Amino acid sequence: EDHRKVKELFRQFEEAEDDSTKKEIAQTAIKELKVHTALEEELFYPAVRREIDEEEKIDEALEEHHVAKLLIAELSRMKPSDEHFDAKFKVLAESVKHHIEEEEGEMLPEVEGEIDADGLGKQMAERKQKLEGRMNGMSTGRGGARKSTRGRRGSSSKRRRGAKMKRR
After folding, report:
1. What gap in Å lies between CA 4 and CA 14, rounded to an integer?
2. How far apart are CA 146 and CA 141, in angstroms?
3. What is the pTM (predicted TM-score) of this model?
4. Shortest CA distance to 80 belongs to which of 12, 26, 10, 30?
5. What letter would DSSP give residue 43?
6. For the chain, where are the alpha helices, taking DSSP H only?
7. Do 29 and 10 contact (CB within 8 A), yes or no?
8. Environment class of 60 (CB within 10 Å of its CB; exposed 0-12, middle 13-18, buried 19+)
9. 3-state DSSP call for residue 56?
10. Which distant-in-sequence residues (6+ apart) come within 8 Å of 147 by Cβ?
């Protein structure tokens, strides 16, 4: 389901004509990808690693996640009107689509019937709900200190740095 959702977002981005639509689609895709990569890295890949003999497939998938995270970090600091935003998002889309093809075409068939799909699916659904809640809290200013501390960089950040130094 996650794979279909991000592929649809990539398609919508290709068809979008204005920057505000592109920004909204890109932000949604980035959120979806962050949650999905976390789920795969925390739960799915360890379960698959226990069942297949080919370590390279998991290692390659993790490297593909690494590349996606680098592109996501860069895109998160950009605006759709920035030079290379469209190109960077399209490269992310192509990379993710390739990753999806490998997972669905190679990895999933190899572990089908070998892993407890229902149990793993339930774990992933529960974890996804928590991750989405955490991400939604950060974007709205609820539940995340990230947004609330940005505007107070003066003496309080110096106190925080001093407290960190004392702990070391």
Report:
1. 16
2. 8
3. 0.77
4. 26
5. I
6. 2-15, 19-39, 45-51, 55-76, 85-102, 108-111, 117-140, 145-149, 155-167
7. yes
8. middle
9. helix
10. 138, 141
Residue type, 24: E
Contacts of 17 (CB under 8 A, 6+ apart): none
Q: What is the CA radius of gyration of the chain?
A: 19
Is the pLDDT confidence value at 142 over 80? no
Mean of pLDDT values over 53-73: 94
Q: Give the Cα separation of 91 and 71 in Å (integer).
A: 8
* Residue 84 DSSP symbol: T
Q: How far apart are CA 152 and CA 129, in angstroms?
A: 31
CA torsion sign for 146, 147, 153, 159 is negative
**Rounded to an integer, what distance in angstroms lies between the CA atom of residue 35 and that of residue 128?**
7
Single-letter amino acid, residue 6: V
pLDDT, tens digit, for every residue of 80-129? 999 999 999 999 999 999 999 999 999 999 888 888 889 999 999 999 99
Total count of residues recorded for the chain = 168
On the question of pLDDT at 147 being above 70, the answer is no
